[in-house]
UniProtKB/TrEMBL annotation:
NCBIfam families: HGPRTase. GO terms for molecular function: glycosyltransferase activity. Keywords: Cytoplasm, Glycosyltransferase, Magnesium, Metal-binding, Nucleotide-binding, Purine salvage, Transferase. Belongs to the purine/pyrimidine phosphoribosyltransferase family. The gene is hpt. The lineage of its organism: Bacteria, Bacillati, Actinomycetota, Actinomycetes, Micrococcales. This is Hypoxanthine phosphoribosyltransferase.
Amino acid sequence: MDVSDIEGDITEVLLTEQQIAEKIAELARRIEADYAGQNLLIVGVLRGAVMVMADLARELRMHIEMDWMAVSSYGSGTQSSGVVRILKDLDTDIAGRTVLIVEDIIDSGLTLSWLLANLRSRGAESVEICALLRKPDAVKVEIDVKYIGHDIPNQFVVGYGLDYAERYRNLKSIGILAPHVYS
Ligand code: 5GP
Ligand code: MG
Ligand code: MG
């Protein structure tokens, strides 16, 4: 769906469908160059990264494998605590594999920093991260992210896989959610 289909729910479009597509293509060119000739496994983090995975994978002009993980942060409230529980693990044994984690957004970085350490401990040859969005103001832990699409302001965004209460994932663009929706 488009912003016009949910009139008033989005206060500002941060990235249009076309801007997202251009960025995904740019990331794909870099990934192809960096991983040429390698047997790359891309790992999508459910559910937010579904759109990025689908578009990035189809944009890559090389053989890849795809797998998925689902994780949830323990902790009260809306802040991620850094203590992570695996809801769905990989189906792939990644010992010796070249792995690229694909994420929608890095907020505090706590989830990804845990995931990175977890996958690296399984004996992968390499584990790197590709995230479409990052909120620079919110980063609490330094993580080494190889590919970043856009840095965005520290506001709650939805669309292109990103939800509020499981809605808005099917919005084609990425925008700032209007306060009236959650207040
Ligand atoms: P953190 O980096 O804080 O550990 O957690 C990142 C996760 O929180 C993301 O994968 C995403 O699911 C969620 N998240 C963080 N910021 C936003 C946002 O602005 N909008 C939405 N919809 N989810 C967000
Ligand atoms: Mg995510
Ligand atoms: Mg969510």
